[in-house]
Amino acid sequence: MWCGALVLSFVVAAAAPAGADSQRAALDWQRAPLDWQREHGLTIELESGFGGLGVATSDPTRDASGAGVFLAAGAGVFIEPGTSVTLRVNSLTRVGPGGSLSVAYVGPSLRRRIDEFFWVRAGLGLALALERIPGGAQLGHAMDFGLGHTFTPGTEHALSVALSGILGSCGDRMAAGYGLVVGYTWL
What we know:
Layout: H1 2-30, E1 42-56, E2 64-80, E3 83-96, E4 99-113, E5 118-131, E6 137-150, E7 157-170, E8 173-186
Antiparallel strand pairs: 1-2, 1-8, 2-3, 3-4, 4-5, 5-6, 6-7, 7-8
């Protein structure tokens, strides 16, 4: 009896690696290979979400902060698979009891894929601060940044979620805005 158990254990041990390999092969077959060759030519990015905005000025009575709506769009080209340069327009708008306040970024951004699912983005450009309360519009400089996760990597229509933001200086205003956004990228 123990001899039969010993033979059975050898058979199971010998069959296990072959079974694991066949299971792994079945899983590999179900997952289509990623097509990074799509990452060439033109790309379009759209983002929308909610976030926060804070503005500090030389006059503390004009400081503002609060929740807002984050919108962004970009169009550009891939300079190599996984790396694109886009012209982006980001806007974060807060509407409050004293009026509305918008901070926008316009400029180039470099987006780099870290791995299959994650990417980072950064850019330097122009900032525009608009408000419906005293102060009007001011022009300055800003930084665009983002860290995202793509749910559908290597496809022509990629969906992602990201933390996007704007840091800027416009005249006597320093602005910081961020947004948790849902994004769409056409490759």
